[in-house]
Amino acid sequence: MTCCKQTFTFADRDHPLLLDSGQNLWPVTLAYETWGELNSDKTNAILVLHAFSGDSHVASHPEDDFSDNGPGWWEAMVGSGKGIDTDKYFVICSNILGSCCGSTGPGDENPITGKRYGLDFPLVTIADMVRAQRALIDFLGIDVLYGVVGGSVGGMQVLQWCVSYPDMVRSAIPLATTMRHSALCIAFNEVARQSIMIDPKWQQGGYSDEEPPELGLAVARMIGHITYLSDQAMHRKFGRKLQGRDAFSFGFESDFQVESYLNYQGAKFVRRFDANSLLYITKAADYFDLDKEENPEINRLNSSTTKFLVISFTSDWLYPTYQSRELVQALKRNGCDVCFCEIQADCGHDAFLLPDEHLTSMISGFLEGVENSCR
Known about the structure:
Elements: E1 3-10, E2 17-18, E3 24-25, E4 28-35, E5 45-49, E6 78-79, E7 84-85, E8 90-94, H1 126-139, E9 147-151, H2 153-164, E10 171-175, H3 183-197, H4 214-228, H5 231-237, H6 257-270, H7 275-287, E11 307-313, H8 321-333, E12 337-343, H9 357-373
Parallel strand pairs: 5-8, 5-9, 6-7, 9-10, 10-11, 11-12
Antiparallel strand pairs: 1-4, 2-3, 4-8
Helix pairs in contact: 1-2, 3-4, 3-7, 4-6
């Protein structure tokens, strides 16, 4: 049934979650939300996976008051009669491990010390996030997911689900994502991390709620936000328009609208996100690599029965189309059933989050095709 935010807690000292780093983590809590109804044989569940700064609120609930909860981050795609139709499917979205939106992360209490983890929180990987999600899916009594869907870092989780638990995934839709970060992506993430760590209030990760490294986190968000847009989108929205003035200030105030916009995005972000979580999640994304030369994990999908729909966007320069084509080629080499589409869009990386009739109909049609092929 449709539910607002809930939590699921698992793992203890005797049965911890073993991480890729070799460290143990316990207890582990995941915040999650669901939409729609799980059918009697539990075969209509779709797991939606969010990008790095997202949360479990992918769409609103009928009882939501937008003044309190606001619309979901993929409101245009998930809901009654939408691309991921909650009249047909039971949709689940959980907040990722390491985040600060209800799931266990560096801002939580370390059960050993009784103090906030800070940098004592172990580094987690995309695979660790998926292991935790697997525990939630088991808790819900679901043996096979009808689909896993996500973009950006969410798309990495989609691919990791298919590699780690191929028999549990009937269909997969990775959008605007990659098998591995390029040097450019790693570079942007490192600059964002450094902007936080040089903030005097960061205190080696030991900052308080009262004095977080707001300036560093705001700059990190500004850096990230630039990568989500495209040259066309920036030109269309801002060009060289001035903000609240008719002439240059001849100082270091925000003369241009784009400067004011980035400052606003940074200030808004620090009110809802944790600096240490940004460090951990961006590092997990940088570590992600399914196409290592010595032992490509993508090859585990050999003879997989999962059906794939890979989607890229023409103006996405963070995860450009050539990376999606490399993914498609790797899937085909392993005999996978894969469809691919590059969507014309000038909005940059964020295009997968914006209302788009073509994208909606493509996802809806693909999911219906999976249903028909299983009859």
